[in-house]
Design a protein that fits this description.
Elements lengths: L3 E10 L2 E11 L4 E5 L6 H8 L7 E6 L2 E2 L5 H6 L2 E3 L12 H13 L13 H13 L15 H13 L5 E5 L7 H13 L5 E5 L3 H7 L2 E6 L2 E6 L1 H6 L1 H6 L10
Parallel strand pairs: 3-8, 3-9, 6-7, 7-8
Antiparallel strand pairs: 1-2, 1-4, 4-5, 9-10
Helix pairs in contact: 3-4, 3-5
Bound molecules: adenosine-5'-triphosphate.
Amino acid sequence: MSLLKVENISKSFKTLQVLYNVSLEVKPGERHVIIGPNGAGKTTLFNCITNLLPIDSGSIYLDGKEISKLSPHHLVHLGMSRTFQKNNLFGDLTVEENLHLALVAKKSYRYNIFSPLASRSDIKKETNRILDQWEISSRRHIKVKNLSYGEQRLLEVLLAMASNPKILLLDEPTSGMSPAETAQTSEMIQKLPRSIALVVIEHDMEVVFAIADRITVLHHGEVILSGSPEEVRNNEMVKEIYFGGGAKQHA
Ligand SMILES: Nc1ncnc2c1ncn2[C@@H]1O[C@H](COP(=O)(O)OP(=O)(O)OP(=O)(O)O)[C@@H](O)[C@H]1O
């Protein structure tokens, strides 16, 4: 069974229709990449899947359960997490403190004057585990605003993972990165555990083909193809619409 099933969703902003009967399916553990020219509707699709925007019609299922009316917060608890194109971090807090807050949000602790959050041993333990796992313990006391742009975007992915999702939606994880940061991010995405399915919006074709099991191509709000990387690479319409539009194609 599909983990995520998007069935015929449409979305308009007043008179501008942005998504037309979009359908896609993501299997557990799959790396599913969404490509398409600027303005194709990719971020809108993410905003609809995570219910930051209500859909006009269609249905969305997570693990067979209809989720299109559930709040973004509820969706996190059901195992769906996401990052945004713009960074969502607390710049004046350290790496460790940002991680700490993400873990607290996951556990929905209430503030208790007799049990300060910072002293909760389960949160401390989990923070240390993540810092060690991703080899960033030495950066733990650095304020996030002093990290490089690439490091900040990587930290965002780790924070989104703190909720222990079944499916993680990454919106252009390499946007604005240097080639070295892009390569590092691509490598990190490939190292994410297969227990997590990924849906990734990505423009860099080298990254797309490095990570994708399956690719969905959006054009003017319509899915023109959903298939294997080979099918997408060899599809004439995709070549013309997407690669012909000046995007970088992997050799
Ligand atoms: N909140 C909004 N109100 C009105 N129009 C919007 C809104 N959000 C997006 N749009 C419009 O919807 C269309 C699709 O935008 P969207 O950001 O989903 O595209 P995209 O494929 O993610 O583009 P990019 O690759 O440039 O990020 C664009 O024409 C955009 O201007």
